[in-house]
Design a protein that fits this description.
This protein has 389 residues and is an alpha+beta fold. The chain folds into 3 domains: 119 residues, Butyryl-Coa Dehydrogenase, subunit A, domain 1; 100 residues, Beta Barrel (Butyryl-CoA Dehydrogenase, subunit A, domain 2), CATH 2.40.110; 147 residues, Butyryl-CoA Dehydrogenase, subunit A, domain 3 (Up-down Bundle), CATH 1.20.140. It has 12 helices and 9 strands. The strands form 2 sheets. Strands 1, 2, 3, 4, 5, 6 and 7 form a 7-stranded mixed beta sheet that branches. Strands 8-9 form a two-stranded antiparallel sheet. β4 and β5 form a beta hairpin.
């Protein structure tokens, strides 16, 4: 057997150690801790800090910048275990996966020392702002501008559905460089969350999580040249180095939600007795759960493939990341829906927590990239069909 294939199929001893340790930490917090934090409108700071102190939130960051020196395979394992324990740390998708990857690949040495070392240690959290009200998934229509002015830049525009600003120290904002001919290529810049000229408004959401969603407004925010990542001409290629890890982490979290939902449903079915027998003895209960389990394991396998390809810098990583995100979102929704049906009326009781899981699973069908855009990608790039949008 080729040793290069083993990590993609079987967890290494190191990965299994990471999984066991993360699961043990999260088990001490669990759903009740998360619910209390949601009700109080507070971030899950204690859980984040404990995982960070053990080095789990920076496993993918290079060793020389305070991280574990591993890859997306291991960070995805961390994300899956967090979600499987009934916990939620949305910024793990953003800070180490998206921003950490972009800085590691495109940041200057000064930027890496300034921001990446904190990401590696889990002590610095950086949010990511790309989505705009009038652009949707079309990044070519971004209107937030970065205008050169007296050796510096001015940032103007707005962003929407930006996660975790209340916990973040900085934000990696994707703007477009404004020149004589108008708006040009995307230009990511790092600004502080308390920067003068930045205004933020919370967005009420159905998803019950400890990380809030925000709309951001930039009014002549000053950005010094040392905060521009990748120079003025890197364009979308730089961003995709961070967006493929985002898809992999989104898939991992969806997989974790599916694992938790099926575990809860299976336990309930084994112990719930109607007509003198556990309901699990009826195929009407058992078969839907078994179908969901098969779909979930296929999604997990695709997620491992995507992470392994990305870590190897291999061809097809982008395709696999999109497929993994799609498959995991659909599998998670199916798992939670089947779990709710297994519980009957109890599935809608807040005490069982399945409705909380549902919104966490359902949002993944739409964000960070919709299922329709993934299908467009696969149709065009995998099957060679004409572009349809």
């Amino acid at each position: 057997m080729s040793t290069t294939l083993v990590p993609a199929l079987l967890p290494s001893e190191e990965e299994q150690h990471i999984r066991d340790a993360v699961a043990a930490i999260c088990a001490r917090y669990g759903r009740e801790y998360m619910r209390a934090k949601v009700e109080a409108g507070e971030p899950a700071t204690e859980l984040w800090d404990e995982l960070a102190a053990q080095g789990f939130l920076g496993v993918n960051i290079p060793v020389e910048y305070g991280g574990g020196g591993l890859g997306m395979l291991e960070l995805a394992a961390v994300g899956e275990e967090i979600a499987a324990a009934g916990c939620s740390l949305l910024l793990i998708v953003v800070s180490p996966a998206i921003v950490g990857t972009i800085l590691a690949k495109h940041g200057t040495e000064e930027q890496k020392q300034r921001w990446l070392t904190g990401i590696g240690a889990g002590t610095t959290r950086i949010a990511f702002a790309i989505t705009e009200p009038d652009a949707g998934t079309n990044s070519h229509n971004l209107a937030t501008s970065l205008t050169p002015e007296n050796g510096s830049y001015r940032l103007n525009g707005q962003k929407v559905f930006i996660s975790g600003i209340e916990s973040a120290d900085h934000i990696l904002v994707v703007a477009r460089m404004r020149g004589e001919s108008g708006l040009g290529l995307p230009a990511p810049v790092v600004i502080d969350t308390n920067a003068p000229g930045l205004r933020r408004t919370p967005l009420p959401m159905a998803v019950r999580g400890t990380d809030r969603q925000w709309q951001l407004f930039f009014d002549n925010v000053e950005v010094t040249p040392d905060r521009l990542v990748g120079g003025e001409e890197r364009g979308l290629r730089l961003l995709f180095d961070g967006l493929n890890p985002e898809r992999i982490m989104g898939a991992a979290i969806s997989n974790g939600i599916g694992i938790r939902a099926l575990a809860q449903a299976s336990e309930y079915a084994r112990n719930r007795t109607v007509w003198s027998a556990p309901i699990a003895t009826h195929q009407g209960i058992a078969h839907p759960l078994a179908e969901a389990k098969i779909e979930l394991e296929l999604a997990r396998l695709m997620t491992r493939k995507a992470a392994a390809l990305y870590d190897a810098g291999a061809k097809g990583a982008g395709e696999a990341a999109n497929m993994a995100k799609y498959a995991a979102a659909e599998a998670a929704i199916r798992c939670v829906d089947r779990a709710i049906q297994t519980h009957g009326g109890n599935g809608f009781s807040l005490d069982y927590g399945l409705t909380d899981l549902y919104w966490g699973a359902r949002v993944a069908r739409t964000a960070p990239v919709s299922r329709e855009m993934v299908l467009n990608y696969v149709a065009e790039h995998s099957l060679g069909l004409p572009k349809s949008y």
